[in-house]
Amino acid sequence: MLKQTRTFFRKNRTNLAIGAGIVGSIYLGANYVLSKLTDAKNRMATDRIAKENLRRRFEQNQEDCSFTVLALLPTATERILELLPVEQITHQLQEKKAARLAKSGAPSEVSFGALSIKDDDGVSVKSLKSEPAPQTGTGEPRPKKTKAQLWNELKITSITRAYTLIYTLALLCFLTRIQLNLLGRRNYLSSVISLAERDNESPISLENNENNPQLSQEDYDVNRKYLTFSWWLLHRGWRKLLSIVEVSVKQVFGPLNPRDDISMSQLRDLTLQIRKTVEGDGEFSTSWLPFLLPPNGDEDLVLREAGVIPEHTTPDPTGTAQTSAFASSAPLRRLLDETSDLIDSPPGRDVLSQLFDAAFNILLEEKLAEQAFKVVAMPMPGGIDREGRIQEIYEVPPDAKTKVANVLAVVTRQAHLIGNGIPNEYLKAMEKVQDLTGFSAIIYSNFDLSKASPTD
Q1: Residue 204 above 50 pLDDT?
Q2: Is-annotated flag, keyword Membrane (predicted)?
């Protein structure tokens, strides 16, 4: 038996060798394929985790943008309300009405919470809430104005204030999205690079390392200084904007009398005329960069005024545009340059236009339609928003009209809600603009290391 077995193997050793080789090759090949499949599976799992973490961090970043806007907006709102004191003008009109009633012998009880032009045409303007008018700083009596002058001033001031606040809110929302998404991308890259340097041999899991400080002190200082540049819009930019809006409002609404009737279509047309003046029309669109960022050379001014660098910082004796090490920091300069490019880019301008559309739509098509034209909201067929609530629409009849004074009353109230409302319906409407989210995603995911590298 043993001899026969040896004879068999001797006669078939070539075939057996070939067979063993084939089996071994199959085994090795199978192991190789399995290892590659395992590697591919691990890479897919890693990529999936990375994408999920990136998505989650991006969404958190957008929520942070909302909170940041709500935190910064009152700074500009307070100054705009102070510079355009509609309530003081209302108070003066109420005083004139009280004096007139006292002279005529009529009951002198007058509510300072309401303003009326009933004496002229039987139409009341209510809910123009007023506050006691502060005395002038010099103590001199305020110059007397006629009733017509006060109504005209009230008209121009109330519309200018509301429209300026809309533009300021939209610009702040836009700038904050750019800033926080640029920094979010920068911090994300910093954490990835830090993990790669820590262990070059192990795969980078791209986990969320936000709770583990990865930024150097230098990067932290750059981020802080970069965010400080919203100071320009909150203290200087809105003033330039207000002057443009005011001139346009005087031209467009100047001829109107508070007793005049106005339809929704007329109000839309008048508002559109103002918007064309402020925003530009067609190819001649407004560059929003001067309203959002300081001109080159004024970076240190912003940082000093915001208290980020000492007041005693002295200019560079060479007289160059970059006057100190603070403003000439390469990472900070790169962030500001990229911000400028995004603001002036065609997609950026288009997004801003959509933000303006969203806010003016809330004011005209919802608030004024309901409160001035007394239109009842109707549910939209099949309209459900992202929060699961039924969407409503206001359809103003073509022949529906109201007094200009009623429009002023609503606009006056809405100015406070635009600037200080919590929750802020106008900001929510802007955040629902899909192109704003898309624009933010492009900024956040633009991992061009030549632009986005955290360090030089």
Answers
A1: no
A2: yes
Contact 230, 340 (CB under 8 A): no
Shortest CA distance to 415 belongs to which of 236, 174, 245? 245
CA–CA separation, 78 and 73 (whole Å): 9
Task: Tell me how far apart the alpha carbons of residues 264 and 308 are, in angstroms, rounded to a whole number.
Answer: 48
Angle subtended at Cα 310 by Cα 308 and Cα 316, rounded to the nearest 5 degrees = 110
pLDDT value at position 265?
92
| 428 vs 313: CA distance, rounded Å | 41
CA distances from 86 to 96, 128, 152, 162 (A): 16, 9, 11, 11
Q: Is the preceding peptide bond at 423 cis, omega within 30 degrees of 0?
A: yes
- Under a CB-based contact definition with an 8 Å cutoff, are residues 433 and 351 in contact? yes
3-state secondary structure of 263: strand
The rounded distance, in Å, linking the Cα atoms of 115 and 406 is 10
Q: What are phi and psi of 88, to 5 degrees?
A: -70, -40
Tell me the pLDDT tens digit for each residue of 30-64: 777 777 677 776 666 666 666 677 677 878 888 89
Our separate counts of H helices and E strands in the chain read: 18, 8
Query: Nearest Cα to 195, choosing from 186, 183, 207, 181?
Result: 207
Beta bridge partners, 285, equal 280
- Spatial distance between the Cα atoms of 187 and 300, rounded to a whole number of angstroms: 24
CB 321 within 8 A of CB 406: no
Encode 303-318: b = buried (16+ Cβ within 10 Å), e = exposed: bbbbebbeeeeeeeee
Q: What is the pTM of this model?
A: 0.78
Angstrom distance (rounded) from CA 69 to CA 359: 15
| CB proximity list for 294: less than 8 A, separation 6 or greater | 229, 232, 236, 301, 302
Two tokens, residue 418: 């635009």
Q: What is the DSSP string of 314-365?
A: PPPTT--SS-STTTT-HHHHHHHHHHHHHHHSHHHHHHHHHHHHHHHHIIII
List the structure tokens of 172. 């702040």
Q: Residue ranges per domain, the chain?
A: 68-90+147-452
Contact in structure between 153 and 87 (CB atoms under 8 Å): no
Instruction: Give the residues across from 378 on adjacent strands.
Output: 393
pLDDT score of 310:
76
Beta-bridge partner residues of 402:
262
Of 5 and 405, more confident: 405
259 contacts 403 by C-beta, under 8 angstroms: yes
Distance of CA 172 to the CA centre of its chain: 5
Residue whose tokens read 């288009």: 350
Q: Please state the separation of Cα 280 from the chain's center in Å.
A: 20
Q: Which residue has the higher pLDDT, 77 or 216?
A: 77
